[in-house]
Design goal:
Number of strands of chain A: 13
Mean pLDDT of chain A: 95
Number of helices of chain B: 10
Low-confidence stretches of chain B: none
Shape of chain B: globular
Radius of gyration of chain A: 15 Å
Strand content of chain A: 25-35%
CATH class of chain A: Alpha Beta
Structural class of chain A: alpha/beta
Strand order of the largest sheet of chain A: 2-1-3-4-13-12-11
Largest interface: A-B, 44 and 40 residues
Order of helices and strands of chain B: EEEHEHEHEHHEEEHEHEHEHH
CATH topology of chain B: TIM Barrel
Number of domains of chain B: 1
CATH architecture of chain B: Alpha-Beta Barrel
Largest sheet of chain B: 8 strands, parallel, barrel
CATH class of chain B: Alpha Beta
Oligomer: heterodimer
Strand order of the largest sheet of chain B: 1-4-5-6-7-10-11-12
CATH superfamily of chain B: Aldolase class I
Strand content of chain B: 25-35%
Largest sheet of chain A: 7 strands, mixed
Helix content of chain B: 25-40%
Low-confidence stretches of chain A: none
Number of helices of chain A: 6
Chain lengths: 200, 257
């Protein structure tokens, strides 16, 4: 079992690498298209603004990569902004196009204090594989934007509330995504990572 | 579903070791930072903060190694502060495994640094650390440097407003009057900063009793940072969280609670 973490810019990838290694899998950081497309599981991390993240993703053809993996039924997991850029559009610092796996727009949250920063619990979708065994746990979030409208598909959608609800996680066939950082969410996060790897 | 309040232990690190003291004097070796980070994690810390108080370049290099080793073992957010003067310093720390950085003196000297860091990495990585005390300024609070010994010549609230406009993602408010007293947080100062800011606010300085933590939350703090009361074993993190839980505040209940 080989898992690739897509390296397409700066940020803390070391924690992600080690967190996924805890599962016992072989994990590597890569920006190589071929390696990333062949991996059993691909993790798309993301920090910073939507547009900068999307630009970084495109610089390694990450958008094509995600679509090709989908076409070949290979699992991908987006984390934080790595989830947001999978949507059609983001409005952080102007309107920007995303990968477009899902049609919704990533909008600014309306809470009084932003970013939404810290540990919050998740209302896990019935039948969720990701949250199996950690349904009542809290996960670490840090973001000011999110998707507040449900997806009009059969995808499993898990929600969190911060003065209004937003999508905390999506499980849509081979594509999964979390708005929170499982690699920063202590033992609950490591458990969720193992759950994802178990689906590969 | 509610966002939990965060309890954050702060570790002063120099030359690869945690030190503890009162008001930056009489520092004694308190142990290995990675081991202490791991211990606090297991006790329910919601985040960790390292403050690098190394005076030398070699000391800073050692801190990078400490950050690396901590990030490999402890899977909760890690903030690192101390001696950060440039975008490159931030890049090195993030690559080593830090999730956030806190800046203080360097931002006072050159406020554009805030925008430079926020533009490159996003506001969410950037904590503005403000060492403030009561003074005869417009707001009644001023910014200090050198551990509270010198005035920076800035009104604290004006500085917070400016820094927020430049793009900080979080404020760490240290009361230099209350620091080390264990007589309680400066509630008036927390309320004043809360009233003018819309980013998360971490209160620091003065924590003594469990009631002090609750009072700071009532004043508008989102997170509570403390150093000596944890290091000297006055309170355990788990005890504080249990107290807050019973008192009705939202806390993360990890395995230890």
């Amino acid at each position: 079992m080989a898992i690739a973490i897509l390296d397409y810019g700066s940020g803390n990838l070391r924690s992600a690498l080690r967190a996924f290694e805890q599962s016992g899998s072989e994990v590597l950081l890569t920006s190589d298209y071929q390696i990333a497309v062949e991996a059993d599981g691909l993790v798309v991390p993301g920090v910073g603004a939507f547009a900068a993240c999307m630009q970084g993703l495109k610089s390694v053809k990450g958008d094509e990569l995600v679509r090709e993996r989908m076409a070949r039924s290979r699992p991908t997991l987006g984390i934080c902004v790595g989830m947001q850029i999978l949507f059609a559009q983001g409005v952080e610092h102007g309107s920007h196009e995303g990968v477009g796996i899902w049609p919704n727009t990533v909008e600014k949250l309306t809470a009084r204090v932003l970013p939404h920063m810290g540990w919050n619990s998740v209302d896990a979708a019935a039948g969720s594989e990701l949250f199996k065994g950690v349904e009542g746990e809290s996960f670490y979030f840090v973001h000011s934007y999110g998707v507040t409208e449900p997806l009009a598909t059969t995808a499993l959608q898990s929600w969190t509330d911060y003065e209004g609800r937003f999508l905390a996680a999506i499980e849509d066939g081979v594509i999964s995504a979390t708005q929170f950082h499982p690699e920063k969410s202590g033992s609950a996060g490591l458990h969720l990572i193992k759950n994802w790897i178990a689906t590969l | 579903m509610t966002l939990s309040v965060r309890i954050i232990p702060c570790l002063d690190v120099t030359d690869g070791r945690v030190v503890k003291g009162v008001n930056f004097t009489n520092l004694v070796d308190a142990g290995d930072p990675v081991e202490m980070a791991s211990l606090y994690n297991s006790e329910g810390a919601d985040e960790l903060t390292f403050l690098d108080i190394s005076a030398s370049v070699a000391g800073r290099e050692t801190t990078l190694d400490v950050v690396r080793r901590t990030a490999e073992e402890v899977f909760i957010p890690l903030t690192v502060g101390g001696g950060i003067r440039s975008v490159e310093d931030v890049d090195r720390l993030l690559r080593a495994g830090a999730d956030k950085v806190s800046i203080n003196t360097s931002a006072i000297a050159r406020p554009e640094l805030i925008a430079e860091i926020a533009d490159r990495f996003g506001s969410q990585v950037l904590v503005l650390s403000v060492d403030a005390r009561r003074a005869k300024t417009e707001s009644g609070f001023e910014v200090t440097t050198h551990g509270g010994r010198e005035s920076a010549g800035l009104d604290a609230l004006a500085w917070v407003e400016k820094a927020c406009a430049l793009g900080v993602g979080e404020i760490l408010l240290n009361s230099m009057d209350a620091d080390g007293t264990r007589a309680g947080y400066d509630i008036g100062m927390i309320k004043a900063v809360r009233a003018i800011s819309r980013v998360p606010l971490i209160a620091s300085g003065g924590a003594g009793s469990q009631e002090d933590f609750a009072a700071a939350l009532d004043a508008g703090a989102d997170a509570l940072l403390a150093a000596s009361i944890f290091h000297f074993g006055v309170h355990r993190i788990g005890d504080i969280k249990r107290y807050l839980d019973v008192a009705g505040y939202p806390v993360r209940k990890g395995a230890s609670l």
